[in-house]
Specification:
about 30% helix, binds 4'-deoxy-4'-aminopyridoxal-5'-phosphate, 2 domains, 7-stranded antiparallel sheet, globular, alpha+beta, D-amino Acid Aminotransferase, Chain A, domain 2, D-amino Acid Aminotransferase, Chain A, domain 1
Length: about 300
């Protein structure tokens, strides 16, 4: 995690970053019992805009529902969320693109493990928008670690504790000299990366694991699917075998902190288009980039 900018929303208002602290005995600290989302804010001379803010808020609510954190929805509306994001951005006055991390922490200190009815503290901070994977052709490794299944810790919920799974797999990939991992589910089907969704193109068809494949239902994944359909591409969301990636014409990944980044090598095998950006990836990357900052058609951009 990059360093937070100086002013952070924490609890009931904006405080200095070094004063935004959770107790050592809170469930958030002891069990990773916090849910979060990260979205980009773009800065131009005239405006600051957030991308798909309402979808991020909705996913935060849904993460709470899955985990059983019930106090957040009682206290927060989308209007309040937008207003607080606006205040944090104003307080920090960023001069270039930032990522905003909004987290709901279960901040009670109780004996044992439960969640319902426990109080929550929200934190919202900004940090510099730096991509977490190479943008010019990444090399991936199938992980020795399997993705946590929906009936263990659901990937659909963006819950801090679950990111230990991502840490294990990403570190394994780095230790082996790769940029990131490909998670398989317990049956050996493709899920996603440590913090990005994955797409392949074969014979002109865009394919990605469906939302029941133990993935996070990424906001950028949804964006790519919408844009691809608008481009007239045939799109399939379905179970994906690892070896389909080996024979793909193009492979790319997407996510808030990953952007739309091409993959040039998987488990030592060159992807079809490598070392050149494939035509479908290039089109969708451009459409995605345009949408992030200036979307008019879909209502994806919120002026702060
Ligand atoms: N999968 C995982 C596990 C992630 O952490 C992320 C990053 N939030 C994504 C996919 C991409 O999601 P989004 O497009 O909403 O950033």
């Amino acid at each position: 995690m990059a360093t937070p900018h100086g002013k952070v929303f924490f609890g009931n208002g904006i405080v200095d970053a070094h004063d935004a602290k959770l107790g050592v005995a809170t469930s958030a600290v002891l069990y990773g019992l916090s849910v979060y989302t990260v979205f980009p804010v773009y800065v131009s001379a005239q405006t600051r805009t957030a991308f798909r803010l309402q979808d991020h808020f909705q996913r935060l609510l849904e993460s709470c529902r899955i985990i059983g954190i019930d106090t957040f929805a009682q206290q927060w509306t989308y209007e309040r969320f937008t207003q607080v994001v606006r205040e944090v951005v104003q307080a920090n006055d960023p001069q270039r693109e930032v990522y905003v991390r909004a987290t709901v922490h279960v901040d009670e200190s109780i004996p044992g493990t439960r969640v319902r009815g426990l109080s929550t503290t929200v934190s919202i901070f900004l940090y510099d928008a730096v991509p977490i994977v190479p943008q010019d052709g990444m090399r991936l490794k199938t992980s020795v670690w399997r993705r946590i299944p929906d009936n263990a810790i659901p990937s659909r919920a963006k819950v801090n504790g679950a990111y230990v799974n991502s840490v294990l797999a990403k570190q394994d990939a780095i230790d082996s000299g790769f940029d990131d991992c490909i998670f398989l589910d317990i049956n050996g089907h493709v899920c996603e990366l440590s913090a990005a969704n994955i797409f392949l193109v074969r014979n002109g068809v865009l394919i990605t694991p469906d939302v029941t494949s133990d993935i996070l239902d990424g906001i950028n994944r949804r964006t790519i699917l919408t844009l691809a359909r608008e481009e007239g591409l045939e799109v399939r969301e379905r179970v994906v075998d690892l070896t389909e990636l080996y024979i793909a014409d193009e492979v790319f990944v997407c996510g808030t902190s990953a952007g739309v980044a091409p993959v040039f090598q998987i488990d030592g095998r060159a992807v079809g288009s490598a070392p050149v950006l494939g035509p479908v990836s290039a089109t969708l990357r451009k459409r995605h980039q345009d949408a992030l900052t200036g979307d008019q058609a879909h209502g994806w951009v919120t002026v702060l």
